[in-house]
Amino acid sequence: MLRDQLDAPALDWRAKGFWQPGPAVSSADFAAAGHHLFGGAVSWPVLVARSAAITHNIDTMAAFCARHGFSFAPHGKTTMAPALFTAQLAAGAWAVTVATANQLLACRALGVPRVLLANQLLDPVPLRWLAGELDHGFEALFYVDSVAGVEAIGAALADQPGTRPVRVLAELGHPGGRTGCRTVDELVEVAEAVAATARVRLDGVSGYEGGLPDSAAVTAYLGRIREATVRLADRGLLAAEVVVSAGGSAWFDIVADQLGGAWLPGHDLRVVLRSGAYITHDHGYYAEHTPFRRVRNEGSLEQALEIWAQVTSTPEPGLAIVGMGKRDAPYDEGLPVPLRIRRASGAVEGADGLSVTRLNDQHAYLRVPPEVEVRPGDLLCFGISHPCTAFDKWRTIPMVDDGYTIVDVLHTYF
Amino acid sequence: MLRDQLDAPALDWRAKGFWQPGPAVSSADFAAAGHHLFGGAVSWPVLVARSAAITHNIDTMAAFCARHGFSFAPHGKTTMAPALFTAQLAAGAWAVTVATANQLLACRALGVPRVLLANQLLDPVPLRWLAGELDHGFEALFYVDSVAGVEAIGAALADQPGTRPVRVLAELGHPGGRTGCRTVDELVEVAEAVAATARVRLDGVSGYEGGLPDSAAVTAYLGRIREATVRLADRGLLAAEVVVSAGGSAWFDIVADQLGGAWLPGHDLRVVLRSGAYITHDHGYYAEHTPFRRVRNEGSLEQALEIWAQVTSTPEPGLAIVGMGKRDAPYDEGLPVPLRIRRASGAVEGADGLSVTRLNDQHAYLRVPPEVEVRPGDLLCFGISHPCTAFDKWRTIPMVDDGYTIVDVLHTYF
Question: What ipTM was assigned to the predicted interfaces of this complex?
Answer without folding.
Answer: 0.96
